[in-house]
């Protein structure tokens, strides 16, 4: 988008979009979205954005990506922007698409995965399918290409449960995401092959739809 893109070469992520009210970054795999417990987990995307944009006030965080997942993250730079963007996520106004590489060949080439999910209390942070106590969880998928013994897909989450795409790939499609240490085989790929590749929101100033894209590095 003209007027939105800006590259910051001395950081570990690229700033994909910047306005006076919000910023969109391309988070690398392995970086926390928000601080974890302990000083060793204080370094994260939110902390780096706050350092990079000292004018930011109030809470920044609008949504999160798993540490292993790369791709687009949006942060509000003032309290009103953060609240408005959070509202858009809560009301499912935001459009999201993820690119993933799955183990095996997936058929049919498009469909819907509708499996309820809940936390496995004895094996946190693992999530499991539970038709009695699980929370409704829905994902749309479309095959991009079949690549010998794996499948490249687009995932569009309708709901936003923890580890939803990872569980739906492994349990719904019977094709776990490559490099997934929890629901597949960590040794199958150098990293979790899941990337947040498209994010569209309503601009907090104008209300018009603005879309941001990022290409997966796998």
Verbal overview:
The chain has 218 residues and is of the alpha+beta class. The protein contains 3 helices and 11 strands. The strands form 2 sheets. Strands 1, 2, 3, 4, 5, 8, 9, 10 and 11 form a 9-stranded mixed beta sheet that branches. A two-stranded antiparallel sheet has the order 6-7. Strand 10 and strand 11 form a beta hairpin. The protein starts with 13 loop residues before the first strand and ends in a 5-residue tail after the last strand.
Quick tags:
218 residues; alpha+beta; nine-stranded mixed sheet; 3 helices; 11 strands; 32% strand; globular
Amount of helix: 10-25%
Give me the number of helical elements.
3
Roughly what is the average pLDDT, rounded to an integer? 93
Sheet with most strands: 9 strands, mixed
Distance between the termini: 23 Å
Name the helix and strand elements from N-terminus to C-terminus, one letter apiece.
EEHEHEEEEEEHEE
Relative strand content: 25-35%
Radius of gyration: 17 Å
User: Would you identify the regions where 5 or more consecutive residues have pLDDT less than 50?
Assistant: 1-11
Q: Please provide the count of β strands.
A: 11
| Class from helix and strand fractions | alpha+beta
Q: Which shape, going by the Cα principal axes?
A: globular
